[in-house]
Design goal:
- This is DNA-binding transcriptional LysR family regulator.
- Belongs to the LysR transcriptional regulatory family.
- InterPro entries: HTH-type_LysR_regulators, LysR_HTH_N, LysR_subst-bd, WH-like_DNA-bd_sf, WH_DNA-bd_sf.
- Pfam families: HTH_1 (PF00126), LysR_substrate (PF03466).
- By secondary structure, the chain is an alpha/beta fold.
- The protein has three domains: 60 residues, Winged helix-like DNA-binding domain superfamily/Winged helix DNA-binding domain (Arc Repressor Mutant, subunit A, Orthogonal Bundle), CATH 1.10.10.10; 103 residues, D-Maltodextrin-Binding Protein, domain 2 (3-Layer(aba) Sandwich); 100 residues, D-Maltodextrin-Binding Protein, domain 2 (3-Layer(aba) Sandwich), CATH 3.40.190.290.
- 40% of the residues lie in helices and 26% in strands.
- Strands 3, 4, 5, 6, 7, 10, 11 and 12 form an eight-stranded mixed sheet that branches. A two-stranded antiparallel ribbon has the order 1-2.
């Protein structure tokens, strides 16, 4: 700060306090009695600010050493354990917690700050939430291995020839399916409705019907004797990470996000790997 700027700032402070803080002569400048009193107060304020700054830095350090993420139940059980193991190997001092909830609930947890980030297919826009596309995805058909009538790629009309194991109507995946069915003017035979994606896959394995799931969740199918077929034309959408806008940078979260990206790239079936997309049209 220049001498002129410093003198101007002191005069402004004295005007605000309505008293002189310094005695000025041609030879020296010294504090007045009011100046000495104000100096003590100013020193306490500066010390309080410095202490508060140190405490906030410490809080941030501990917060960065603890990561709270959310997944939908399917990936929480089938993908998160493997990702957690890899993350702990690379970051042994970071504690990580997971919440397994439906997409709408995960969004609420991010909005309230209860978790640092959530991963899933989020189709409802929300103010104050920032979305980062993690992996492109499509809807795919899952059917029993012994069903030779279904090839690796099929048109949507194939659904009319098979009983459908549907997810509940509140499921975003089911809502995408219903939109596609309406767009292609199809008439489906719903054999039953279940709440969980893995239940639908298990029933498909037994030949009770076929089911439609997102391609990012095809890791579930590896536990069952089922095949996966791409549905054409594809219904494209993004698997995303959501965070609260204005959050502090979190290096650990970025490392974990990269693990999610790598895991989805490795586990998604090549037969169902979609092209990059922007929306669920």
């Amino acid at each position: 700060m220049s001498q002129a700027a410093l003198s101007s700032a002191i005069r402004e402070l004295e005007n605000q306090l309505d008293c002189n803080l310094f005695e000025r002569t041609t030879r020296h400048v010294q504090l007045t009695e009011a100046g000495h009193q104000f100096r003590q107060t100013a020193m306490r304020v500066v010390q309080e600010l410095e202490l508060s700054s140190m405490q906030l830095k410490e809080i941030h350090r501990h917060r960065c050493a603890r990561l709270r993420v959310g997944f939908t139940p399917t990936l929480a059980s089938h993908a998160f354990p493997e990702m957690l193991e890899s993350f702990r190997d690379a970051h042994p001092h970071v504690h990580i917690d997971v919440m397994d909830e439906a997409p709408r609930r995960l969004q609420e947890l991010v909005e309230s700050g209860s978790i640092d980030a959530a991963f899933g297919a989020f189709f409802q826009k929300a103010s104050g939430i920032e979305q980062l596309p993690v992996s492109p995805s499509t809807l795919v058909l899952v059917h029993a291995e012994q069903d030779s009538t279904i090839g690796p790629s099929m048109e949507w009309s194939v659904l009319e020839a098979h009983p459908i194991i549907a997810l509940s109507d509140v499921s975003p995946v089911q809502q995408l399916l219903q939109s596609a069915v309406k767009r292609h003017n199809l008439k489906l035979r719903r054999t039953m409705t279940v709440s969980h994606l893995e239940t639908a896959v298990a029933l498909a394995e037994r030949g009770i019907g076929v089911t439609v799931i997102p391609s990012f969740a095809t890791a579930v199918c590896r536990r069952y004797r089922v095949n996966i077929a791409r549905l054409l034309p594809p219904v494209r959408f993004n698997y995303c990470r959501i965070v609260k806008m204005g959050r502090s940078p979190n290096e650990n979260l970025e490392h974990f996000t990269n693990l999610v990206i790598d895991h989805l790239r490795e586990t998604e079936s090549p037969r169902t790997a979609p092209m990059p997309v922007e929306d669920a049209g």
